[in-house]
Amino acid sequence: MKTWFHSWRAAIRIARRDAWRSKGRSALVLAMIALPILGVSALDLTYRSSELSPTERADRSMGTADAIFRDAQAEGVPILQDPPGDMHTPVKDYKDQPWPNGPTDVTKAIPAGSTVVTDRSGGAKLTTAHGLLSAEVRELKASDPITRGITTLLRGRFPEKNDEVMATSHFLEVSGLSVGSTLSARNFDRTYRIVGSYELPDALAVDQINALPGAFLTPYAKAVEKSGMPTPDTSTTYLVKKSGGFTWNTVQQINTKGVVVTSRAVMIDPPAESEVPLFQKEGWGTYDSSPAADAAALAAVATVVGLAMLEICLLAGPAFAVGARRSRRQLGLVGANGGARSHIRAIVLSGGLVIGVTAAVVGTVLAVILTLALQPVLEDMMNQRFGAFDVRPLELLGIALLAVLTGLLAAIVPAITASRQTVLASLTGRRGVRRSSRVLPLIGLAAILLGGAIALFGSIATESVVIVGGGSAIAELGVVAMTPALVGLFGRAGRWLPLSPRLALRDAVRNRGRTAPAVAAVLAAVAGTVAVSTFMASSEAQQRAAYEARLPHGAVSAFVLEEGGRDVPAVREAIQRHLPIDVRADVERVSVGKPGCSPWGGGEGCGRYEVVLPKANECPLYATSLPGGTDPSEKYTPDQRRKMITEDWRCDQSSRGGWMSVDGGLLVGDAKVLQVLGVDDPGAVKALAEGKIVSFSRGEIDKNGTVGIKQVTDIAAADKASEKGLPAPGKVSSIPAYLVPKGQKSYGVQLLMTPATAKAAGLSTLPAGAYFSTERMPDTEARQKLDGELAKLGSNAELHVEEGFVNEDSLFVIALAVFAGLVTIGAAGIATGLAQADAEADLKTLAAVGAPPRVRRTLSGFQCGVVAAMGVVLGSAAGVLPAIGLRLTEAREATNFYEQAIAQGWDNGLSGPPYVPIVIPWETLAGLLVAVPLGAALLAALVTRSRGALARREAT
C-alpha cells in the first residue's frame, strides 16, 4: 500500500510539473474539459435556484395568508379539486343535463373568525406618455401584513388614498411614466397618481398597477358602461388567514360549497394521490410522466453525456499523446532507473488526472461566480426572481467527477502506448514498428451493422425515435472504432498527389495512433451537425409545402374586433400612412346586440350570428349531435367514413387558403376586397353590385340559391337548445347568393356582401378592419414605425403582412456548421502538433537535402488539411443515416395518423397523404467538405514557422 501511494504521488508530481511546463497544451485540454463542466454546473445552479420550494411558492401567491379562496363558477354545487387548486370539476356527472355555470358567494364559505383580504383584478387601457397601454389593474391592499411576499416594493410607497396607485417597474418602463406621474384610462374621467414602483417576483414582465380595494375597478366599470361599452370582466379571490390553517380535510369540506381552496398547508405537505377523490374520477389524473417515458429520457440524457465525453476524449487524447511523445526521453529515464511499465502508465494517467481535477475545480468555481454575477440577467430571461441561491454539493461533485473521469479516459490510450515502448526506443527517439489492431475494425463493423439494423427496425417497424437514435449512436461508435482502418484506405490515394500532400497523407496513415482519434473527433462533430442539418432541412421542406398563405404575397390585413371597432379608422389611416399601399379595401362585420359587445356574444344585451347550414348540405359525419353526446359518425363503418370524407362534397372541410378571425368568415365590403385578395371573377363583382352575397363555399347555399344568416339574441336559450341537439332560436335573413367557381383562393373569407346588402337584410354592421395591397414588400423600418404608432393607440389590432414562408431555423443551422468547423480545426490542429513532434526528424532530413523552407509550412498545412478532410468525409456519410431514419419514423407516424383520421371520419381538410420529404443540405455539406478542410490547412500553414533549427538527425 505504501509503495503504491508513493509511486502515484511521484507520478502526480511529475505530471503536474509537465503540465506547468507545457502551459499552452495544458490550457487547451483544460478548456476543452472545463467548458462543458462550467455550462452543466451553471445550468444546475440556475435550475435549482429558480426551482421554488413549496413555502416560497406559497409566499409569492398568498403572502402570509393560509389559503386562497376563489369561486369555481359552478353555481355553488359540490366540487372536487386537486391539491394545488388548479383543476376542479363538479362531484356529480352532468352527461345529459346542463352543466352548472354560474357564480356563488365565496364569503359564505370562509370560516368565522378568519382574517380576509380581497384580491380583485381586471383590465383597462391606461393612458401613458405615448398613448394607451392595455394593462392589468389589481385592487389589493399591498400594505397589509397578510400580502407580504406577493409584491416587492422597489421605490416610493404603497397607495394610501383612493386616488393613488403603484405600478410595476415593467409598466413604468414601457409606458414612459415614473413615480410621481399621473395616469387614467380610456372612457374614465378620474386620474391617479403613481406613488410607488413594485414587481411581482413570479412575473417580472407584467404590466400592472395596484390600487386600494374599490378605488379603480368599480368606478371604471360604471364609466365604461355609461359610454355604451360592455362592462370589463373582473376576477376576485380572497386571502384568508385562520388559526390552524386549512388541512386537506378542511379543503374538501369547503369544496362542498362550490369554492376552490389553495391551502398553504396542502402545498407544503400534499396528500397522496389515493387521498384525492378527483384523481379517482374517470378522465382525471396527475398527468405525471410514465416510468417508460422517464427511462427513455434518462437513456437520452445518458447517450448525450456519453457522446459528449467521447468527443472530449477524442479531442484531448491526441493532446496527451503529444505530451507523452515529447516526454519520451523522460519516461525512458524512468524505465532505465528501474521503473516498471505501470509507473509509465501512472505518469501519463496522472497527466489526465491533474488536468481533470483542475478542470473540475475551475469549471465549478467559474459556474458559481458566473451564476451569481449573471443572476439578474437570468432572472429577467426567466421572468421570475430566484428563490434562495441553491447549491447542491452532491450534484456539483457528480458533475466534477465527470471532468476527472473524462481526463483519465482521454489519457488511457496514450498511457498504454507510452508504456509499451522499450527503454532503448524511448531514449534514442526511435518510433519502432507500429501495427494496427485487427480486432478493433471487426468490432466497429459489427457495431455498424447492429446499430444500422436497430435504426432500420425503429424507422420501419416502429414509431420510436428512441430506438432510431440509439441505433444511430451505436452505428456512429462503430464508425469511430473503424477509423484506423478507414484512415489506411485513404492512404492509397497518395500515389497521385504532389510531394507535400503525399508526405502528409503517408505520415497520417503510418501514425494512425495519433491520426485516428483526431479524425474520429472531427467525424463525431461533423456527423452530429450533418444529422441535425439534414433533419432540419427536411423539416423546412415539409413546412414550406404545408405553409398556407393568409393573403397574397405582400398584402396586408388589419382587424380590430374590440370595443365596437372604435379604433378601426385610426388603424386604417396609420397603415396607409406608413406602408406603400396600392389598394385599400375597408371591411365591416355583422353585429348583434349593443355596439360594444364581443363578436362571439356574451354579456347583457349581446348576441351573435350564425351562418345557417342547410340540412341537405350537412355532412352525415358531422351532423348535429343528438342528446347524450352521441357521435353521428359511429354508425358508419371505416370504409363508409373514408368514402364520405374523400368523395362527398358535403364533407369537404378544406378551405380556400388562409384564416381570419371574423366568425364564419363573413365580411361586409365592396369589390375592392376581391381585388386585394386576387379573386379574378367578373361574376363575383357583378353579383356584389346586384345585391347578392358572394360565397366561396357550396355548403352554405340552400336549394333556393340563398344563404341564411341567423341573428341569435338570446344566448342562454341558444346554449340550452344546443345541449338538446336543437337549432338555436333566432331570426333568419335569406340573401340571394353567388357561388365563386373553384380554383379561386379566398384566404379565409367565406362570404362577402356589400353594406347595402347587409342593411337591406336587416343586419347591423360595425367597422372590422381593412385589406391592403402594396406596391412593394414593406421594409423593416416602415414596420417598426407602424408598430410604434399602433402601440400608442393601445388597440389590440390583428396586423398581418404576408411575407410567404420564412424559415426561422436557418441561423441555428449556420451556428451548427460554425461549431463543427471550429471542432474540426481544433482536432486537426492537435493532430498537426502531434505530427510535427513525430516528423521533426523527417523535416530535418528535408532541410539537410536542400528542400525549400516553404516545404515545412506546406507540409504542416497539408497534415492539418488531410485530418480535417478525412474526418469531414466520414462524418458526412455517418451523419446522413440517422437523419434519414428519424424522417422515415416521422413519415410512418404521419401516415398511420392520416389513415386513422380517414377511417374515423375526422376532419383532415382533404390534404391528402402526408408529405414527409428527406432533403440533403448540399450547401452545408459543401461548406463542410470544402471550406473547413481548406480553412484548417491555411490556418496551420500560417501559424507554422518556415524554418526550423538545423540539427544532427539521430539514427532511427
Description:
There is one protein chain. With 956 residues, this protein is of the alpha+beta class. It contains 30 helices and 22 strands. Strands 1, 4, 5, 6, 7, 8, 9, 10, 11 and 12 form a ten-stranded mixed β-sheet that branches. The longest helix has 51 residues, at 854-904. The two termini are 40 Å apart.
Blueprint of the fold:
Layout: H1 2-21, H2 23-50, H3 54-62, E1 67-71, E2 79-81, E3 88-90, E4 115-127, E5 132-139, E6 152-156, E7 164-168, H4 169-175, E8 182-183, E9 192-199, E10 208-211, H5 217-226, E11 234-241, H6 248-255, E12 259-263, H7 264-268, H8 277-280, H9 291-326, H10 328-336, H11 341-373, H12 375-382, H13 393-420, H14 423-428, H15 439-460, H16 465-481, H17 483-490, H18 499-510, H19 512-546, E13 556-559, H20 568-578, E14 581-591, E15 608-611, H21 638-647, E16 666-668, H22 671-677, H23 682-689, E17 693-695, E18 706-712, H24 715-723, E19 731-739, E20 751-753, H25 755-760, E21 764-774, H26 780-793, E22 798-801, H27 810-838, H28 840-848, H29 854-904, H30 922-943
Helix pairs in contact: 1-11, 2-9, 2-11, 2-13, 9-13, 9-19, 9-27, 11-13, 15-16, 15-29, 16-19, 16-29, 17-18, 17-19, 18-29, 19-27, 19-29, 20-26, 27-29, 27-30, 29-30
